[in-house]
Amino acid sequence: MSPAFGAMEVEHYSKGVLLEPFVHQVGGHSCVLRFNDKTICKPLIQREHQFYETLPTEMRKFTPQYEGVVSVSFEEDEDGNLCLIAYPLNGDHDNLENLDNADCEPKSKLLRWTNKKTMLLENEKISKEWVRQHRKEEKMKSHKLEEEFEWLKKSEVLYYTVEKKGNVSSQFKHHNPWSMKCHQQQLQRMKENAKHRNQYKFILLENLTSRYEVPCVLDLKMGTRQHGDDASEEKKANQIRKCQQSTSAVIGVRVCGMQVYQAGTGQLMFMNKYHGRKLSVQGFKEALYQFFHNGKYLRRELFESVIKKLTELKSVLEKQESYRFYSSSLLIIYDGKERQEVSVDSDPEDLEDLSEESSDESAGAYAYKPTASTVDVRMIDFAHTTCKYYGEDSVVHEGQDTGYVFGLQNLIDIIKEIRDESSE
């Protein structure tokens, strides 16, 4: 328990938040957790934290919004089950409240801390029997997940059927084996260090998927070089090998993970980083095509927005003096929710948003109107980022990050090729 809480009088307490796996994490190895609907958190790495706190203004629209730091600890029950709890840093009790803590679901997950070192569920309607049964179910899922992850590493692409019950987005929980594995690994690391430490700092970031009902997410590892300046010789050699054996060396970008909703079958398709490393340039192009295809048709109305944002990001990065974004990823996100049919003789206001592409696909009495055609393009993961403003860095680079810019230009060119070929 934090000393700040240990010194508190018994009538005072702070609400903590039970953290859950972030089910839309499709790549990376760092554990990303759900704080609430609009906020995620991940272990604080000093270099990444410094990046967010000194972020150039022109880059802010291309990165998640930084929302501060919380302290995270874990509890272990008699069965050995672990859970992670976030609470205010340094006794700043308003910190979590300002993050719309009431957004967390279910509300029984708000925790009360006392100087008795006990953790009490605020919702007293939750019985001990229910909690015991819930933990038993989670344990069974955990064992199954280990088997799934072994399959995940061997399989190139996975398909999970989404149950057609209620809102599609509500069925995402526990469907992404990658996020669940990262969550398990984080818990294990914290458990192993329990004797020495049970307080960890996590940074809070904007949940980029929160605006989408069925997020389709593409995680791209950018640049021709992945190792940081501080990498060991072994790490450096390993990263160089991965780049040389993948599309990173050839076009400066490779697939690190993908999640796509297939409207035709009601399935989620996952592509992992192991498969991404094997792709040729043509295979990379086919993977991009697959990302924009929902199993019924190609989402052509998304191309112009993606190209425009990538081009703008490229222009911004070309002006960033001395920045190097080693091992950083780029996310492309859109809503996979199926389009709704709109009668062409509807009120004009109902049709004003119809794009030219979707109008071309219309057939007689009906045209297709995308329910959410917005696309998000964001840079993430800055654990190995460096620039001249980081005074302690021994290596200072000059000019733009040519490897990252090279990857962006090739990504733009390939998306344009897909767009042009699909319109022929």
TrEMBL record:
Top-level lineage group: Eukaryota
Source species of the chain: Tricholaema leucomelas
Class of the enzyme per the UniProt entry, highest EC level: transferase
Family under the similarity heading: Belongs to the inositol phosphokinase (IPK) family.
Gene name of this polypeptide: Ip6k2
Name under which the protein is recorded: Kinase
Taxonomic lineage from the root: Eukaryota, Metazoa, Chordata, Craniata, Vertebrata
Biased composition annotated in UniProt, kind: Acidic residues: 344-360
GO terms under cellular component: cytoplasm; nucleus
Keywords: ATP-binding, Kinase, Nucleotide-binding, Transferase
Keyword check for Ligase: no
GO-annotated biological processes: inositol phosphate biosynthetic process; phosphatidylinositol phosphate biosynthetic process
Pfam families the UniProt entry points to: IPK
Gene3D superfamilies (UniProt xref): Inositol polyphosphate kinase
Assigned EC number: 2.7.-.-
Transmembrane domains' residue ranges: none
Positions of region (Disordered): 344-365
GO molecular function, one term: inositol hexakisphosphate kinase activity
SUPFAM superfamilies registered for this protein in UniProt: SAICAR synthase-like
